[in-house]
Amino acid sequence: MGDEAVFFAAYDAVLRRWPVEVRGIDVPTPYGSTRVQVCGPEDGVPIVLLPGGGATSAVWFANVADLVPGHRVYAVDLMGDFGRSVHDGAPLRGAGDLVAWLDALFDELGLDGAHLCGHSYGAWIALNYALHTPQRLGRLVLLDPTSCFVGMSPRYLMHGLPMLLKPTVERVRAFHRWETGGAPEDPVWRAFLDSTATARRSKVVPMRRPKAQDLRACTVPTLVLLAEHSRAHDVPRAAVAVRRLLPGASVVTLSQASHHSIPTERPAELNRLVAEFLA
């Protein structure tokens, strides 16, 4: 089995772990075809889920069961990243292109008024979308957002550099062990992470922090969930910055969570807080 086949077999295996019936659809945009996993009642309030870099739409297996009551869930493979979205259209040059891509996706799916939830790189995209098109959103949830309110940790970037420059299974494992404090508990998810060492992505856009005045002008009700043991950034400093730059936001630090494990390893509190915020 070739490298891509191994990756997509691992991707499909994670999707089979979803505890609800899910259907994958391909949505045309000017940037290429976007794969979206759809589940939940057709008349439910729409919620769009944007994963962290490299995690794909499959990552929400531990969260989706608590979201589908009352929600129509749209979990997205990010354009330019790993997954089944195909970046064969317009180039991705910066945050503006990702906002335009997501806007086209909202148009095609008729998602005005949807809630938007993102993790890490996906949270950065979600925040930029909220700043540019607040009228299209209901509520915004950011899970340990990176390069949104404070800069990323130099140690985090240095530990991740070998994996990015020359990815191998061992380098992927070593980086996740360092950041999370151990290997993923779920063996299917662990196999998926291994498979990303040889998967291909077209372009992950460099993340630049939004301007302070733009953040202060944000009108979308927002919940920011930080991971207590995140090594991606200084968590206490991030909490202070969120309260200063988004004074109307709710900010919660999840105990025992790391940056990469926040959606998958200890989902109960996260799911409860998100469900309460969206109710």
Characterise this structure.
This protein is of the alpha/beta class and 279 residues long. The chain contains ten helices and eight strands. An eight-stranded mixed sheet has the order 1-2-4-3-5-6-7-8, with helices on both faces. Helix 1 runs antiparallel to helix 7 (187-195) and helix 3 crosses helix 4. The N and C termini lie far apart (45 Å). The mean pLDDT is 95.
* Main sheet attributes: strand count, strand direction, barrel closure: 8 strands, mixed
Global mean pLDDT = 95
Q: Which class best fits the helix and strand makeup?
A: alpha/beta
Order of helices and strands: HEEEHEHEHEHHHHEHEH
Q: How helix-rich are the residues, as a percent range? A: 25-40%
From the alpha carbons, calculate the radius of gyration and give it in angstroms: 17 Å
| Content of β-strand | 15-25%
Shape: globular
Number of helices in the DSSP assignment: 10
What is the straight-line distance between the termini?
Answer: 45 Å
> What strand order characterises the main sheet?
1-2-4-3-5-6-7-8
Number of strands: 8
Low-pLDDT segments, ≥5 res: none
In summary, what is this structure?
This protein is an alpha/beta fold.
